[in-house]
Amino acid sequence: MTDQILGAPTVLRVITATGVLAHLALASSFLGTILIAVVAEYLYMRSHNQFWLNTARTFSVVATIFFGVGAAFGTLVEFGLVTIWSNFISVIGEAIVLPFFLELFAFLMEVIILPLYVFTWGKIKNQALHWVIGIAAAFGGYWSAYNILAVMASLSMRPPGLEVINLYQATGQNVVGLTDYVVKWANPADAWNMFWWGANVFIFHGILAAVIFSWSVVTAIYLYLYVRDRKPERFMMLKVLVPTIAVLTAIEGFVLGHFQGELVTDLDPLKLAALEGMFWSGLRVDPLTSFLAYGTFNHAFWGYYSWPASVRPPDLVFVFYWVFMVIFGFLLGVWTGALSLWYLFPGFFGRFNWARSLANFFERSGAYLIPFFAAFAAIGGSVSAESGRYPFILVQADPNPSGGPPIITGVPVGYGGLLNPTISMPLWLAALVIIVEVAMPALAVFMVYLYTTRKPKIETKVVEY
Asked: At what angle do helices 50-84 and 97-118 cross, to 10 degrees?
């Protein structure tokens, strides 16, 4: 294989990761904007303020743009996955197909009900009925995300009852010369374990991250405009967006993040060592991790170098976890929390000059930093989850009979596992694929820009003499 032919798993993983992250950005944008539309319509029914009706109509169209581009791009990403990681199809068909099957029904709900919601503004006299249609459209999107994230959860944490068998070791044969692994349930009824407790923690952690990211971007736009013109309707919107982001960020970090950490601690000690930067060999006490996980300061953990290099995830995962996800997530909470206090209690804090100065700083900087913090926290979380289990999917840690570190097993991502051993890709084609992957969400954003900045139509009446 020459330098002009890219068949190495690392390069193919970069192509796949770029596509998946771009698709996640589109999906997150849809989940966030359709929720804004539904919330705004509810506020209109409560207040009869025309601003909320206009906001709901605008974001329903924006959500449709993200859905349309995201659905088409998702098909592209799907075919890329089955081309590069063709053996993943055998895993899906054998064991984890249930969420994908249910996702088809969720997708049908989106395809049918979302256009109904968008094209019936002003045509359904009962506003509450129209709002229920919007809720159904939003439910289809969140149900779709729920099922897809259930699959992603299983890749990092093997569901109870799922068995991974190395067919080559057991029989000396493999599957049509492509993969050595088969996956099956111990009991067919165990297929519902795709939605076990650990999966639900992962799922809701991911859904909240999507809403936080998309609402942060919208918040930044309204903050930028509000700082310039101080229009009261922008302030109304910020009073809804900013406190919601602050609350969801707290839940994401202190509740779901805590549960997620417990699962990693119990089920994948190697991933824990990579995330927490435990770069030593053998057992060693880590007081901070011990306190967070067990409430004591003397618990010992297996270090990252206790396992052979062939099964260790990239050590750079530590940076994505701590710098990107934890630190930027914390800063997002600080900025939105401070602005929430200012927006919700202006009468109290407005009496202090220092509070007004701080609010001005958080507003002006927040227009740029809030989406930055949210985006990089989301990227850090995604990379930590996916690369933290590399080089396997369907990871499981089993006790070591010899008393050493737990034995980490799963289906390898590379040759003999998921990677298509017959694939090769010229350098120019790999670059072109990445360009297309990046261009798709950029195209969706540009379409939204064109829609939201369009000039209103001026109707003219023809007077006949």
From this structure: 150
R_g of the chain, CA atoms, integer Å: 25
Query: Which of helix, strand or coil describes residue 175?
Result: strand
CB atoms within 10 A of CB 95: 23
**In the predicted model, what is the mean pLDDT of the chain?**
91
Output the DSSP codes for 76-92: HHHHHHHHHTTTHHHHI
Q: How far is CA 112 from the centre of its chain?
A: 24
Contacts of 464 (CB under 8 A, 6+ apart): none
Beta strands in 76-218 (DSSP E): 162-166, 181-185
Instruction: Give tens-digit pLDDT for 447-464.
Output: 999 999 886 554 444 445
pLDDT of residue 419: 82
Helix axes 50-84, 9-47, angle to 10 degrees: 160
Q: Is the dihedral of CA 116, 119, 124, 130 positive or negative?
A: positive
Domain boundaries, the chain: 1-155+420-454, 196-390
**Contact at 8 Å (CB) between 336 and 249?**
yes
Burial class (CB in 10 A: 0-12, 13-18, 19+), 423: middle
Query: How far apart (Å, rounded) are the C-alpha atoms in residues 266 and 252?
Result: 20
Question: Are the CB atoms for 245 and 332 separated by under 8 Å?
Answer: yes
Burial of residue 193, with CB atoms counted within 10 A of its CB: 0-12 exposed, 13-18 middle, 19 or more buried: buried
SS3 content of the chain, % helix, strand, coil (to 5): 70, 5, 20
222-261 tens-digit pLDDT = 999 999 999 999 999 999 999 999 999 999 999 999 999 9
d(CA 274, CA 278): 6
The phi and psi torsions of 5 (rounded to 5 degrees) equal -110, 120
Instruction: Tell me how far apart the alpha carbons of residues 184 and 161 are, in angstroms, rounded to a whole number.
Output: 9
Distances (CA, A) of 249 to 216, 246, 318: 11, 5, 21
Does the pTM surpass 0.90? The reply is yes
- Give the separation between CA 385 and CA 136, rounded to whole angstroms: 30
Interacting residues of 402 by C-beta distance below 8 A, sequence separation 6+? none
In the block, tokens 């093997």 appear at 158
203 touches 157 (CB < 8 A): no
Give the residue among 12, 25, 13, 17 at the shortest CA–CA distance from 374: 25
Rounded to whole angstroms, how far apart are CA atoms 341 and 184? 52
8 A C-beta contact, residue 90 and residue 142 = no
Q: What is the pLDDT of residues 186-221, one digit of tens each?
A: 998 999 999 999 999 999 999 999 999 999 999 999
Tell me, what's the pLDDT at 134? 97
DSSP 253: I
